[in-house]
Write a structure and sequence with these properties.
This protein has one helix spanning 39-45, and strands at residues 7-12, 24-27, 51-54, 63-64, 67-69, 74-77, 84-87, 90-92, 99-103, 105-107, 112-114, 124-129, 132-133, 138-140, 145-150, 153-154, 159-161, 164-167, 170-172, 181-185, 193-198, 201-215, 218-223, 226-238, 246-249, 252-255, 262-270, 275-279, 282-285, 291-296, 303-307, 310-312, 317-319, 330-333, 335-337, 343-346, 389-395, 407-414. The chain has 415 residues and is mostly beta strands. Helix content is 2%, strand content 44%. It has a domain at 169-383.
Length: 415
């Protein structure tokens, strides 16, 4: 097989509609013109397309301000490959054509959210990249926003969007009353796109989902996530009616705690005409209560294919009845995990994924099941580091024949 690449489509985080007079506005402590003494002053003076470049205060004491962003702006650290340190809520006002980038924020107590305003559906583009939230969440759960959240750490928070991508984040939501990752597209009738929920480490709270996805307007690619949960690891609803399948592939899901029954992967209320592929996942537990592996919940009308998954011992219902191809799953295995989600004892999960060549591991051996298997292995996303220019993820065909045009969509940032 020969791969030829004749076309590359790149979606860069930093693409802005640059205003003719856009400039860099430097923020520094006790700044005098042409610098600014605080972030709010720089934002007030800015125009669409400006970059707000922030020097840290002495001793890295945070800039303590709540900021409303009502222009197309970039927020960047003055220090190369470093964080700018703040404390406060950054609310983004939606408007058609507005683009906001936050890159390298360390927020000691505060969140990113939505301010008042409207736009067309997905008319406001937001990128939060390589940022660190000590005690705060990212909540852009509005149809106005098209949000990419990439490479962020949330020590005590949750992440909610309606449209966009969630890639390579480390989210501990175990003390927060919310889903750790929620993508809930409430609008139909828009152009169908793909939502990538790929390469995340997630720790959920008792009574909430680790990853929740419900969509009319996006096809889900939920892949190579390591999910620790206390109720449902991954739960999905709805699904657009299209020939493109929703993929729940190569996730490692473990119930580390619980309350009543826990569920590894739960499917409910899927739409008639939607297609779901549940493949190469590993479901296990350390909690001693009742657990179910891959569960066929109420209201499902879509076609749900469940195959090449690996379920550990102690799961009361490893794979529910009613799924197609369920006979190819492997159950009742002694699977235990290290703290990072790699296998301490793997049963048959090593080389136990779909044996077809497109799903091989990076070393070109038969693909492993779980978050570290396949070409989107979790190793690709951790550790992430602050950097000036990086490609975070590529989307591309998995089975290319000679003479085909290979179209690659890259998600990248270039400061």
């Amino acid at each position: 097989m020969k791969k030829t690449m004749k076309h590359l489509t790149a979606a860069a985080f930093a693409l802005l509609a640059i205003h003719a007079s856009a400039i860099d506005r430097i923020v520094e402590e006790f700044g005098v013109a042409p610098t600014y003494p605080n972030i709010a002053a720089a934002v007030a003076a800015s125009v669409d397309g400006d970059r707000i470049i922030i020097k840290n205060r002495a001793g890295d004491i945070p800039w303590i301000q709540d900021i409303t962003i009502d222009k197309s702006l970039e927020f960047l650290s003055y220090a190369n490959d470093g964080y700018f340190v703040v404390q406060g809520t950054y609310n983004i006002a939606p408007a058609n054509g507005r683009t906001v980038l936050i890159n390298g924020m360390r927020n000691t107590a505060g969140s990113v959210g939505a301010a008042a305003g409207t736009s067309s559906i997905r008319g406001t583009r937001v990128r939060v990249v390589d940022s660190y939230f000590v005690n705060g969440s990212i909540n852009l759960a509005s149809n106005w926003f098209d949000a990419d959240i990439v490479g962020c750490t949330l020590v005590n928070g949750s992440l909610s969007i309606n449209f966009g991508n969630v890639v390579g984040n480390d989210i501990d939501c175990s003390q927060v009353n919310d889903e750790a990752i929620s993508v809930n597209t409430t609008s139909s009738g828009t152009a169908i796109d793909t939502c990538a929920i790929i390469g995340n480490k997630v720790k959920g709270r008792v009574g909430y989902e680790g990853i929740f996805g419900s969509s009319f307007g996006q096809v889900f690619h939920i892949r190579n996530n390591y999910v620790q949960h206390g109720w449902m690891g991954i739960e999905v609803y709805e699904g657009p009616v299209t020939n493109a399948a929703n993929l729940v592939w190569n996730n490692t899901v473990t119930a580390y705690t619980g309350n009543f029954t826990t569920y590894g992967i739960n499917l409910a209320n899927t739409n008639a005409g939607s297609i779901w592929e549940i493949m190469n996942n590993v479901v296990t537990r350390t909690w001693n209560g009742e657990c179910r592996g891959i569960n066929n919940d109420s209201g499902n009308q879509g076609q749900i294919n469940v195959y090449f998954n690996h379920i550990s011992t102690g799961i009361s219902t490893p794979v529910s009845a009613g799924f197609t191809f369920a006979g190819s799953n492997t159950i009742d295995q002694a699977i235990t995990l290290n703290a990072d989600g790699t296998f301490l004892a793997d049963g048959a999960a090593i080389d136990g994924g779909n044996p077809a060549a497109p799903f091989y591991d990076l070393d070109l051996t038969t693909g492993d099941a779980g978050a570290y298997g396949g070409s989107y292995t979790l190793t690709n996303f951790f550790p992430l580091q602050i950097g000036s220019a990086r490609v975070y993820m590529t989307g591309h065909p998995f089975n290319v024949r000679q003479g085909s045009t290979l179209r690659v969509k890259a998600i990248a940032f270039d400061r």
